[in-house]
Amino acid sequence: MSTIAYGERQVHVWDLPTRLFHWSLLALVVVAWFTGEEEGAAASLHRYAGEAIAGLLVFRVIWGFAGGERARFADFAAGPSAIIAHVRDLFSKQPKRHLGHNPLGGVAVFLLLAITAGIVFTGLFSGGEANAGPFAGLWGLELSEVHEALFRALQALVAIHILGVVVESFKTKDALVPAMITGAKRRRPDEPGDDAKRAGLVALIVALSAGACVSLALITQPPSASPGLGAEVGEHSFEGEDD
Q1: Residue 242 falls inside a structural domain
Q2: Is 240 among the domain residues?
Q3: pTM of the entire structure?
Q4: Could you tell me whether strands 184-187 and 9-12 are parallel, antiparallel, or unpaired per DSSP bridges?
Q5: Which of 4, 65, 190, 194 keeps 20 to 30 A from 156, CA to CA?
Q6: What are the pLDDT digits (tens) for 158-217?
Q7: CB within 8 A of 130, min separation 6: which ones?
Q8: Distance CA 60, CA 26 (A)
């Protein structure tokens, strides 16, 4: 921990792999969103973005068990009582500041990972005129409608998550977004907290390798033999509707 102005200290919270995962996932979701209705190269980009996200999710699951201290699922998994207590605390004069994810933030992380995984999986089995998933029609599965419904759920959850970050930052005076960029948070002398323990190099190599292998395996799959299947049952989309 390094000492900074006004008696505060800087505490290292988020490791670099966690931060890179966070912003890479955001970037790829945005790419997939805005290329879902396109054709040609953009349609291929939509598929590649989804398959890259699949690898990111595999990495994050492994990192959730073997990664840095604050990146591990066990650090922010919370039960109903902890969540309720946190909500009540937000209405107090000086809410408690959490080094890692607060209980509500932890719930958001699990939901975001689960819904995004569902979107990727259903995308692999979704048909479309230009951007059918590699497994569309396999085993009689065509999941375009579920794919789109899950994306709508992701949009709503992202909006709630952003609102939660704004409220939490305002109430606790904690710079949550900058922390996910720099990896550090500031703490007063009277606040507990130490630098997060970092993961070992072997864990990082295993997580990165597993994620890369999954993405590569999906990207090298040939196009679906039934690219137009989705036109009969629903529009294939990881993205929002046309304005």
Answers
A1: no
A2: no
A3: 0.85
A4: antiparallel
A5: 65
A6: 999 999 999 999 998 999 999 999 999 998 888 888 899 999 999 999 999 999 999 999
A7: 38, 39, 40, 43, 227
A8: 14
Q: Provide the token pair at 20.
A: 């890179």
Write down the H helix ranges in the chain: 16-35, 41-66, 73-76, 80-90, 103-124, 144-172, 176-182, 201-219, 230-233
**C-alpha dihedral sign at 171, 174, 177, 180:** negative
pLDDT of 83 over the 70 cut: yes
List, for residues 24-48, the tens digit of each pLDDT value. 999 999 998 888 776 666 778 888 9
Residue in this structure with the two tokens 């992202």, named with its chain if needed: 158
CA distances from 224 to 40, 93, 117, 200, 221 (A): 15, 57, 20, 40, 9
The number of folded domains in the chain is: 1
Please check whether residue 9 lies inside any domain of the structure: yes
Say how far apart CA 150 and CA 237 lie, in whole Å: 10
pLDDT band at 109; cut points 50, 70, 90:
very high
| 3-class secondary-structure state, position 234 | coil
122 domain-assigned: yes
Name the residue range of residue 175's domain: 2-233
Measured in residues, the chain has a length of 243
Angle between helices 201-219 and 41-66 (to 10 degrees): 150
Q: Cα–chain-centroid distance for residue 127?
A: 25
